[in-house]
């Protein structure tokens, strides 16, 4: 595949000028424009020549007639040379483009279709039964991230749109329709639906209150803004009042304006949407981040390690024989990792937690931190793996992070 891409790129580059890196067609257009300007200049010369010829004829001056004839011959010769130069250059460029177009089809495009399909060149193929899961992840991703940006209104219409455009089943899209409609309302400046959805003591309530205050302030209605600030203040901390409420109230009373208020409203709106979607996903038992996004991001971060491993493997003529396990460690960001909710330590028979995380032994079997400390007597001695007869020490273990899927 890399050879094919290199061939395509090499042949495609020949449609461009090697020095300026501009398309050859652009050079043709530029030369045509230059020739057009020369024609305008020659037209002015010819007009002057005609005027001089008429003047010389009326006076009967033979010397002036001869000069006029020479000027005419000069203009005609200049015109002939300019046209010839432009014509030859254009034919040369067109010939080059035609030859390169034919070569591109003969060398590059033929090879492009030789393999028949992407499955014939992609060596790391997914298992046959995984297509349904991949399609489901793509559907979930589109629903999760695009539902709040759709221009359609109404739950049924939105669900039908997602099904017609992306083939997303109603079972998937219906989970995000309500969330998308509330996000749309927030973007349009209406927080009523979001307020109705909020549960008591939710931190989102105060953030919506601040957003509404800023929006009222921007509209310039002083009395309505003052009433909202004082009469509709939700339960909050003293710190929240001094940081967010007091500055708005002070500037309102003093008749001052809030600098960059439109930018402040957009930042507060993003904060409210983020809090709302997190609470919504938590209450609906949905992952906040798309699994497809997390997997792709993990792959991008891990790619350089795979490339390094491939280079080492080719040079050392060795291969990794263990299935479903990476031959190297990849440090992923914390938000891509969490503790698997069903991993139970085989020694303590307890679920791993933040305080008692899982650790991988040299043999790649996994124990909890507390059980490992007990087996190694707080790291002072070696111990035998409960799964197999391999001996291990605490210094040779590694903490395990499970990718969130």
TrEMBL record:
SUPFAM superfamilies per UniProt: RING/U-box (SSF57850)
CTLH domain location: 175-224
Keywords: Cytoplasm, Metal-binding, Zinc, Zinc-finger
Keyword Disulfide bond found: no
GO terms for cellular component: cytoplasm; GID complex; nucleus
Entries under InterPro entries matching the protein: CTLH/CRA (IPR024964), CTLH_C (IPR006595), Fyv10_fam (IPR045098), Rmd5_dRing (IPR037683), ZF_RING_GID (IPR044063), Znf_RING/FYVE/PHD (IPR013083)
Recorded superkingdom: Eukaryota
Listed name of the protein: GID complex catalytic subunit 2
Coiled-coil portions: none
Organism name: Torulaspora globosa
SMART domains: CTLH
RING-Gid-type domain: residues covered: 345-388
Gene Ontology MF annotations: ubiquitin protein ligase activity; zinc ion binding
Places the protein is found: Cytoplasm
Positions annotated as zinc finger (RING-Gid-type): 345-388
Residues covered by region (Disordered): 50-69
Keyword Zinc-finger attached: yes
Entry-linked PANTHER family: GH10162P, MACROPHAGE ERYTHROBLAST ATTACHER-RELATED
């Amino acid at each position: 595949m890399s050879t094919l891409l290199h061939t395509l790129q090499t042949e495609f580059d020949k449609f461009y000028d090697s020095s300026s890196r501009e398309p050859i067609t652009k050079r043709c257009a530029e030369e045509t424009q230059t020739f057009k300007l020369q024609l305008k200049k020659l037209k002015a010369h010819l007009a002057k020549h005609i005027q001089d010829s008429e003047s010389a004829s009326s006076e009967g001056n033979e010397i002036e007639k001869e000069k006029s004839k020479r000027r005419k011959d000069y203009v005609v010769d200049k015109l002939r040379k300019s046209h010839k130069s432009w014509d030859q250059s254009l034919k040369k460029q067109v010939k080059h483009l035609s030859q390169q177009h034919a070569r591109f089809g003969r060398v590059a495009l033929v090879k492009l279709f030789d393999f028949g399909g992407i499955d014939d060149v992609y060596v790391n193929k997914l298992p046959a039964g995984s297509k349904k899961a991949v399609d489901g992840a793509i559907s979930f991703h589109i629903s999760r991230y695009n539902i709040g940006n759709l221009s359609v209104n109404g739950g049924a219409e939105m669900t039908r749109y997602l099904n017609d455009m992306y083939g997303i089943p109603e079972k998937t899209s219906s989970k995000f329709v309500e969330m998308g409609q509330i996000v749309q309302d927030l973007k349009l400046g209406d927080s009523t639906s979001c307020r109705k959805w909020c549960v008591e003591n939710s931190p989102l309530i105060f953030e919506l209150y601040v957003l509404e205050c800023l929006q009222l302030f921007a509209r310039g209605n002083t009395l309505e803004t003052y009433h909202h600030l004082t009469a509709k203040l939700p339960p909050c901390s003293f710190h929240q009042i001094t940081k967010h409420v007091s500055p708005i109230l002070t500037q309102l009373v003093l008749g001052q304006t809030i600098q960059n208020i439109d930018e402040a409203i957009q930042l507060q709106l993003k904060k409210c949407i983020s809090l709302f979607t997190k609470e919504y996903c938590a209450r609906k038992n949905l992952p906040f981040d798309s699994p497809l996004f997390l997997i792709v991001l993990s792959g991008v971060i891990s790619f350089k390690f795979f490339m390094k491993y491939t280079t080492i493997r080719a040079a050392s003529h060795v291969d990794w024989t263990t299935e479903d396990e990476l031959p190297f460690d990849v440090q992923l960001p914390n938000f891509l990792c969490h503790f698997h909710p069903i991993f139970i330590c085989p020694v303590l028979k307890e679920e791993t937690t933040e305080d008692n995380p899982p650790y991988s032994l040299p043999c790649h079997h996994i124990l909890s931190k507390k059980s490992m400390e007990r087996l190694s007597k707080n790291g002072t001695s070696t111990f035998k793996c409960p799964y197999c007869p391999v001996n291990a020490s605490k210094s040779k273990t590694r903490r395990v992070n499970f990718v969130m899927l």
